[in-house]
Amino acid sequence: MAGGRCGPQLTALLAAWVAAVAATAGPEQAALPAEQSRVQPMTASNWTLVMEGEWMLKFYAPWCPSCQQTDSEWETFAKNGEMLQISVGKVDVIQEPGLSGRFFVTTLPAFFHAKDGIFRRYRGPGIFEDLQNYILEKKWQSVEPLTGWKSPASLTMSGMAGLFSISGKIWHLHNYFTVTLGIPTWCSYVFFVIATLVFGLFMGLVLVVISECFYVPLPRHLSERSEQNGRSEEAHRAEQLQDAEEEKDDSNEEENKDSLVDDEEEKEDLGDEDEAEEEEEEDNLAAGVDEERSEANDQGPPGEDSVTREEVEPEEAEEGISEKPCPADTEVVEDSLRQRKSQHADKGL
């Protein structure tokens, strides 16, 4: 009986002791507040804070292993932000697709340095020592800044942010259809295709209505006059082209005529020269024949010299015969002259 009574007493004592220990430890644990993160989350509503002062931003995704490995280093870097006089932030690309589009983030994790609205891409490792040296030694000054249309504050990147935000909403809607509602994936794709076609037709209709509202048609008489003026200009251009072609044809014909006249004159000149040469040759031949005839006449009649010829030796007789003109030679000369005349006549034709 005594053992049975001691059991409940011991359990009660143990319970009281545990309650006392819990009571004493509770205030101590409540006095130690949970350590808060020094990394400031950035969203589409507060991202303009990086336009003032010096900032370091990290773009990450919860499912990215490389991003998870650099979380502790990034927290340590943020704790030393006051000493380095720099603010540290982070952007979840899943929750903020617009900011990822504004900074045109294509790889994760991605780090950016901002100094008074001038942005630079940090491509080093996400280790605390490297990040600290990057700020203390001002290595960011040797990095080319994102200027012009590449700047996150530019109008171009603002449009890119809008496109990325729309794509993020579509992705969330797709997950809602397939995960929450349990709709098949192909049904979700068909829905988005039909929605895209309908939206395109609607936007085309809106553009047509806007153009009809702002377009002011011209009166009929003005439109008719403009058409007549256009036709007259076209006719005038056609006439100018025809005149130019006719002038070209006329100039070509004149050039051809001039060339033909020049050729005929050259042929006539050549014919005159040939005729003059022929006349000179004829005169020379006629003079030679006259000389031969005069020499023959000077020798006297054949009766007086008959006695003397008989006395001449045979050799002298042969020499006399060779000196007399041969009628065959004169005929050959005349034939050659005739042939030359005929050739020159053919050339003249």
UniProtKB/TrEMBL annotation:
<dbReference type="InterPro" id="IPR052454">
    <property type="entry name" value="TMX_domain-containing"/>
</dbReference>
<feature type="signal peptide">
    <location>
        <begin position="1"/>
        <end position="22"/>
    </location>
</feature>
<dbReference type="GO" id="GO:0015036">
    <property type="term" value="F:disulfide oxidoreductase activity"/>
</dbReference>
<keyword id="KW-0813">Transport</keyword>
<protein>
    <recommendedName>
        <fullName>Thioredoxin domain-containing protein</fullName>
    </recommendedName>
</protein>
<feature type="compositionally biased region" description="Basic and acidic residues">
    <location>
        <begin position="224"/>
        <end position="240"/>
    </location>
</feature>
<dbReference type="InterPro" id="IPR036249">
    <property type="entry name" value="Thioredoxin-like_sf"/>
</dbReference>
<feature type="domain" description="Thioredoxin">
    <location>
        <begin position="20"/>
        <end position="140"/>
    </location>
</feature>
<keyword id="KW-0597">Phosphoprotein</keyword>
<feature type="compositionally biased region" description="Basic and acidic residues">
    <location>
        <begin position="335"/>
        <end position="349"/>
    </location>
</feature>
<dbReference type="InterPro" id="IPR013766">
    <property type="entry name" value="Thioredoxin_domain"/>
</dbReference>
<dbReference type="GO" id="GO:0005789">
    <property type="term" value="C:endoplasmic reticulum membrane"/>
</dbReference>
<keyword id="KW-0256">Endoplasmic reticulum</keyword>
<dbReference type="InterPro" id="IPR017937">
    <property type="entry name" value="Thioredoxin_CS"/>
</dbReference>
<keyword id="KW-0732">Signal</keyword>
<keyword id="KW-0472">Membrane</keyword>
<keyword id="KW-0249">Electron transport</keyword>
<feature type="compositionally biased region" description="Acidic residues">
    <location>
        <begin position="242"/>
        <end position="284"/>
    </location>
</feature>
<feature type="region of interest" description="Disordered">
    <location>
        <begin position="224"/>
        <end position="349"/>
    </location>
</feature>
<feature type="transmembrane region" description="Helical">
    <location>
        <begin position="189"/>
        <end position="216"/>
    </location>
</feature>
<keyword id="KW-0676">Redox-active center</keyword>
<keyword id="KW-0812">Transmembrane</keyword>
<keyword id="KW-1015">Disulfide bond</keyword>
<dbReference type="Pfam" id="PF00085">
    <property type="entry name" value="Thioredoxin"/>
</dbReference>
<keyword id="KW-1133">Transmembrane helix</keyword>
